[in-house]
Structure formats: structure tokens, C-alpha cells
């Protein structure tokens, strides 16, 4: 296994095809946030300004035939404790799931070799490897623990946010039958009330790139009606969101949906439709139509669509908001793994 370091954007871009091909064979890390196009968009603004400084430090591993078998998508920065750190591209706030990308048979080889490779760097280069948002069932976690302890390094792991998700049966009525009776009644009642309004109510998913620029602005306008989301949408974050949406559309896994009342947008969902899962990334509501519950109604339509189109899961991702559980979501969690090297 030969390891090397990618430190320039040009080298990073050249990896795009191999990167995504390797990702598709990695069940644990096969998420939209690990796609090359997503992380390339993230790097342009360093997460919408979340990081003020950083340098690419992607480690790749190739087998004896030159085949790419492992990627540690890292960058150098100072972590939240201001320590020189190696962190994963995508960290922390806007990428719900992150992980190493490793051909499954190579996990036991790649992770020890990775830490040995990184040990050659000085303490000034990094003192901790600080990895956020790793799925709790990822084989990366026990693999890193074993590899770190073999070197005499300190491995720490903590549970972060819940990531509620709904396993989908593939049938709308079967899904409704699986959730709380009161909530089932509420979903049907709210959809029926909207559909019986004298106003013309409709919903759609964007499929025209020529309209994407305007639709992104409309979506951010909906988000901005919420004070917390308005403060989140800094100029840098708006740029980041645009980059992400265009990257997802061009790669074929954007799901940008709106519900309209008499031609006015009443609500919107920005999701990713990837690997037979729906990943719910963000949403916005026009409070002028609050009495129609447009967010709940649009969510109901999207769940019905996902069942009818044989999607396997509807993933609300990070955050334990109550409405997710009312729609029948169950918890799983993401973890933080922190490795502190022995002092040289």
C-alpha cells in the first residue's frame, strides 16, 4: 500500500472520477457529503466561512496495481480548542455525515498505515486528529481506536447529535399505518384541508437548470423568514449554499421542492436524492401561509413520493426536533473521534 498527500486544488480535482468510484463501494461512507463534487464546493468557501484558515492534506492509498483503495479527506487547521489539527473536509456544521473512504477489505490495512504515515509530521503540523459526524456504525471508529492504541496514542470518542430517519416500506398507506394514529390523522387532515382550499395549491420538484438560480434565491428567502436561519445565511454561507445546490443538480442528486398557493411559494425543502435515500438538508416556510401548515403538507407529499418511488429511507439528518419523530423517525447518532498523538 502506497500512501501520498494531496495538497493542491488541482491534484484534488484530478481525483474526482476515482474518488466517486471508490465511494460507491463503501457502504458506511456512501453519503452525499462524501461525494467529490460536494467537498470541492465546500472547500471553495471552507464551509461558508466556518474556517478562516486551512490547507488541504488529503491522504490517498493505492495498492500494488495503482488502484485507489483508501482516502482520508483531511485538511489542516486549528480545531475548536485552537490546537493544530487534522480534520475532515466538510467539518463541522453543514455536513451531516462524514467518514473515511476505504475499500472495505482494506480497512484493517489502511487505518494503521494512515496513522503511521501521519506520525512522520511534527507536533507543529498537527497534535490532534479531530473527526466529527462519523456515523455510529462506521467501521472507521473501531479501526481508528485500535490503530491509535497500537501507537500509544490517546483515542477518545463521544456521541454527538441524533440523526432521526424513517425506514420506508415502499407504500404510502403502509407507511401511514406504521406511525402514531394521532399523527396519521393529522397528516391526512392537513393535506385534505390544503387540497380543499379555494386557492390553487400545487407542489413541484425543480428539474430545469435554467430556473435554478432564481429558485435558490426563493428558497433562501423562505429560510430567511426564520430569524435563526437568517443569521446563518451570511454572504459566505449563501455562496456556499449556491455552490452546493448547483453541484448536486449537475451530479443528478438534487431534490429542491416547493409548495405554492396561487403561484406564491409557501414552503420549500432542499433535499438530496442519493443512493435510494432522501437526505433532508434544509427547509423554509412562508409564514403568511402558516395556517395551512405548508411545511408539514410538503413533507407529507415528499414522503409519499419517496415511498412510491421505492426510496429506502427518509433521513432527517442531525437534530432532534420533535416533528421528525411525529412522522415516525427513529434515532441513530453521529460521533466525534479525537486522536491525540504521543509527544515526540
What does this structure look like?
By secondary structure, the protein is an alpha+beta fold. The protein folds into two domains: 2-163 and 333-340, Aminopeptidase; 165-326, Gcn5-related N-acetyltransferase (GNAT) (Aminopeptidase, 3-Layer(aba) Sandwich). The chain is 37% helix and 27% strand. The chain is built from twelve helices and 16 strands. It has a six-stranded mixed β-sheet with strand order 2-5-6-8-16-9, with helices on one face. β14 (277-285), α11 and β15 form a beta-alpha-beta unit. α3 (36-49) runs antiparallel to α10 and α7 (181-195) packs across α11. The chain is elongated. The model has no long low-confidence stretch (mean pLDDT 96).
Task: Produce the secondary structure layout.
Blueprint: E1 2-6, H1 9-14, H2 16-23, H3 36-49, E2 55-56, E3 58-62, E4 68-72, E5 74-78, E6 84-88, E7 101-102, H4 107-118, E8 128-135, H5 140-150, E9 154-162, E10 165-167, H6 172-178, H7 181-195, E11 201-205, H8 212-223, H9 227-232, H10 235-251, E12 254-261, E13 264-274, E14 277-285, H11 294-308, E15 313-315, H12 322-326, E16 333-340
Amino acid at each position: 500500500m502506497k500512501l501520498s498527500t494531496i495538497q493542491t486544488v488541482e491534484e484534488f480535482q484530478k481525483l474526482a472520477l476515482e474518488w466517486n468510484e471508490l465511494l460507491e463501494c463503501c457502504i458506511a461512507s456512501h453519503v452525499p457529503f462524501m461525494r467529490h463534487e460536494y467537498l470541492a464546493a465546500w472547500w471553495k468557501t471552507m464551509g461558508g466561512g466556518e474556517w478562516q484558515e486551512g490547507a488541504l492534506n488529503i491522504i490517498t492509498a493505492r495498492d500494488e496495481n495503482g488502484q485507489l483503495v483508501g482516502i482520508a479527506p483531511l485538511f489542516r487547521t486549528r480545531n475548536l480548542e485552537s490546537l493544530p489539527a487534522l480534520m475532515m473536509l466538510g467539518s463541522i456544521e453543514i455536513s451531516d455525515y462524514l467518514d473515511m473512504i476505504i475499500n472495505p477489505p482494506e480497512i484493517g490495512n489502511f487505518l494503521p498505515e494512515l496513522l503511521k504515515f501521519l506520525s512522520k509530521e511534527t507536533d507543529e503540523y498537527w497534535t490532534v486528529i479531530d473527526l466529527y459526524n462519523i456515523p455510529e456504525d462506521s467501521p472507521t471508529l473501531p479501526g481508528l481506536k485500535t490503530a491509535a492504541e497500537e501507537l500509544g496514542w490517546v483515542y477518545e470518542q463521544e456521541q454527538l447529535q441524533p440523526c432521526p430517519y424513517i425506514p420506508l416500506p415502499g407504500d404510502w398507506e403502509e407507511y401511514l399505518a406504521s406511525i402514531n394514529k394521532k399523527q396519521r390523522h393529522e397528516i391526512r387532515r392537513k393535506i385534505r384541508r390544503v387540497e380543499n382550499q379555494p386557492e390553487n395549491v400545487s407542489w413541484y420538484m425543480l428539474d430545469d437548470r435554467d430556473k435554478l438560480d432564481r429558485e435558490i434565491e426563493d428558497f433562501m428567502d423562505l429560510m430567511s423568514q426564520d430569524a435563526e436561519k437568517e443569521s446563518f445565511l451570511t454572504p459566505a454561507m449563501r455562496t456556499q449554499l449556491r455552490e452546493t445546490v448547483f453541484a448536486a443538480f449537475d451530479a443528478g442528486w438534487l431534490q429542491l421542492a416547493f409548495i405554492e398557493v396561487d403561484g406564491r411559494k409557501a414552503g420549500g425543502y432542499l433535499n438530496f436524492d442519493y443512493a435510494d435515500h432522501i437526505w433532508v438538508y434544509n427547509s423554509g416556510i412562508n409564514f403568511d401561509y402558516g395556517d395551512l401548515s405548508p411545511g408539514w403538507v410538503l413533507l407529507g407529499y415528499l414522503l409519499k413520493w419517496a415511498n412510491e418511488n421505492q426510496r429506502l429511507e427518509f433521513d432527517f439528518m442531525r437534530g432532534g426536533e420533535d416533528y421528525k419523530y411525529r412522522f415516525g423517525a427513529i434515532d441513530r447518532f453521529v460521533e466525534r473521534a479525537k486522536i491525540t498523538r504521543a509527544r515526540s
